[in-house]
Amino acid sequence: VDALQSSVNTVNDLYGKSVGTIDGSTSTTFLNARDLRYAGYVDLESLLNDFEAGNLDAIIFDAPILTFYAANSNGKAQMIGPIFLRENYGIAMPSGSGLAEPLNQSLLRLRENGTYDRIYRKWFGNSDNR
After folding, report:
1. Strand locations in 2-130, DSSP E?
2. pLDDT digits (tens, 9 = 90+) for 51-99
3. Hey, how many other C-beta atoms are within 10 angstroms of the C-beta on 96?
4. 3-state secondary structure of 4
5. Are strands 19-22 and 58-61 parallel, antiparallel or unpaired?
6. How confident is the prediction for the chain on average, in pLDDT?
7. In the 3-class helix/strand/coil scheme, how is 66-87 assigned residue by residue?
8. Are 65 and 3 in contact (CB under 8 A)?
9. CB 120 within 8 Å of CB 68
């Protein structure tokens, strides 16, 4: 969970701001737990359109998605502040799948040989491993 907007550097900066996120996401749980008001959107496209139209001060959502958007927004958005809530992504497989170990080994190799960092820089613009 991260934010897009220059006047938001901490969670406390969100109070009194116009904040948007995707309905039903873990970001809504995060915002509700802090009693932060927000506008919920059904999809990313409508959320980003409202942000670009100036109807939102900040977007709170998954850091990789927002980082990609900011890196490709031609200056319309920037990532700011620390990640509010670190979450991990996973790949689901059936129990006992013979693909789990080869996949884990491949992912480990990507991290060790620098490929992960190169891919990250290509899509997100830097390698700070947000």
Report:
1. 2-4, 19-22, 39-41, 58-61, 79-80
2. 999 999 999 999 889 988 998 888 888 887 777 888 877 889 999 999 9
3. 6
4. strand
5. parallel
6. 87
7. HHHHHHCCCCCCCEECCCCCCC
8. no
9. no
The structure tokens 């550097």 sit at: 9
Tokens of 127: 């390698």
Q: What is the pTM of this model?
A: 0.72
The sign of the dihedral angle between the CA atoms of 114, 120, 125, 130 is negative
pLDDT number for residue 100 = 94
User: Residue 111 corresponds to which tokens in the numbers above?
Assistant: 């991290």
Q: Exposed (0-12), middle (13-18) or buried (19+): which is 20, by Cβ within 10 Å?
A: buried
What is the spatial distance between Cα 120 and Cα 130, in angstroms, rounded to a whole number? 10
Helix axes 63-71, 115-124, angle to 10 degrees: 60
What is the number of other CB atoms lying within 10 angstroms of the CB of residue 50? 16
Dig out the tokens for 129 from the structure. Answer: 């491993």
Q: Residue 114 corresponds to which tokens in the numbers above?
A: 């620098």
pLDDT band at 127 (very low <50, low <70, confident <90, very high): very low
